[in-house]
Amino acid sequence: MRIFPVLAAVLSFGFASAVQAQSCGGNFGSFVDGLKSEAASKGHDRSRIDSFFRNVRQEQGVINADRRQGIFQRPFLDFSRALISQGRITNGRRNHERYRAVFERAQQQYGVPPGILLAFWAFETDYGAVQGDFNTVNALVTLAHDCRRPELFRPQVFAAIEMYRRGMLDPVQTRGAWAGEIGMVQKLPSDIINYAVDGDGDGRIDLQRSAPDALMSAAAMLRGKGWRANEPWLHEVALPQGLDLRRTGIRTEMTVNEWQQLGVRPTHGSLPSGNLRASVIVPQGHRGPAFMVFHNYRVLFEWNQSFIYVTTAAYFATRLSGAPVYQAGNPETGLNQDQMRQLQQQLAQRGFDVGGIDGILGANTRAAVQDVQAELGLPADGWPTPQLLRML
Predict the structure, then answer these.
(1) What's the Cα-to-Cα distance from 262 to each of 57, 239, 249, 355, rounded to whole Å?
(2) Which residues cross the membrane (predicted)?
(3) Does a structural domain hold residue 371?
């Protein structure tokens, strides 16, 4: 058995060799002047820099959207049912047929199967229908100036300048998500610079209007982040009575054979090669659905850092690939947002790194909950309950 560290809360985006704290806050105009100076130090022409920043302004709507992400506080069953509709399944199948040749090429060149690309395409923009209407430059500079996640967004500003230099972005006209993501599969500028592909062969890359460009670019990015061809990502399983629940969670990895020897069984079909290493996760506790997850599941955190989002997307990809609906089980009652914050405060006071008091059950909080459950003699499945909160 091998224990993995909790997934990092911040991931590198390619334009910085290491994730470091960046200057933020203060007067917005002075902050922009600092960005201009840094852009010049990186070799950008002064006239291009001035043109890029000429109309930039701070947008409170971006900050409001960043603070208003309540859907990520929902438990897995509620979250997945909210995101996976019959319409998205039907449209997924239609788009698979419509772009079958593109999906086949993406799988042949990059090893990424259609289900994965369809799932993210659906969740990000409803297959291109809803791409966002925020000015991309304003969004990125606003979030770089805000002191919540400057280490993520400041490098993206300079990636956007590089996109402008290459003719891939218009500082006034380019619009997308509130977080500065662009196109049908909502990618940040550094990932566009590093992985964008001309999927339709027209000599240009248009991630907003060309589905082949967007899909091939998404596949290229996943491959570049470590996706392994011909390997699984997630498979629903049933847990045996008496399983030591401390083994569940993304921190623990064993071979498929070792899990099967403990009595873990697939709910449908068969599990992959017994030598593959895997974890078993129970996103809503041991009385809810259980999944065996593999290396490729971990790669999906390069797309989105939310445990609940990645798990739902990975599951939806299996549905689009022919898997049945999960066995929902009968999970124990969880915590509301205020209770979750109280729990995180209690855990932080005990010395656990919960990744911030945000009311969201992320990977860090789950790991801390699991450790405390084991200490208190509760089922150590990482799913916090009112009973656990009372005991703390």
Answers:
(1) 57, 9, 15, 32
(2) none
(3) yes
Distance CA 357, CA 341 (A): 6
Q: What angle do CA 382, 386, 390 make, to 5 degrees?
A: 105
**Within a domain: residue 373?**
yes
**Phi and psi angles of residue 252, each rounded to the nearest 5 degrees, phi first:** -110, 130
pLDDT score for 70: 64
Separation CA 48–CA 97 (nearest Å): 43
Residue holding tokens 């960005």? 35
| Rg (alpha carbons) of the chain, rounded to whole number | 22
Name the one residue in this structure whose structure tokens are 């991931």: 11
Give SS3 for 354.
Answer: coil
Question: What does the DSSP 8-state code read for residue 299?
Answer: H
**Residue whose C-alpha is closest to residue 50's, from 204, 175, 171:** 171
Structure letter (DSSP) for residue 187: B
Is 383 within a domain?
A: yes
Nearest to 380 by CA among 362, 367, 361: 367
CA distance 234 to 291: 6
**Tokens encoding 216:** 């091939």
Res 180 pLDDT > 60: yes
Domain count, the chain: 1
Q: How far apart are CA 323 and CA 55, in angstroms?
A: 49
Distances (CA, A) of 297 to 233, 309, 325, 332, 367: 5, 12, 19, 26, 18
Round to whole Å and give the CA distance between 212 and 98.
11
Q: Please give the mean pLDDT across all residues of the chain.
A: 92
Per the structure, the complete domain to which residue 351 belongs is given by: 337-391
pTM of the model: 0.90
Q: Is residue 380 part of a domain?
A: yes
Bridge partner residues of 244 (DSSP): none
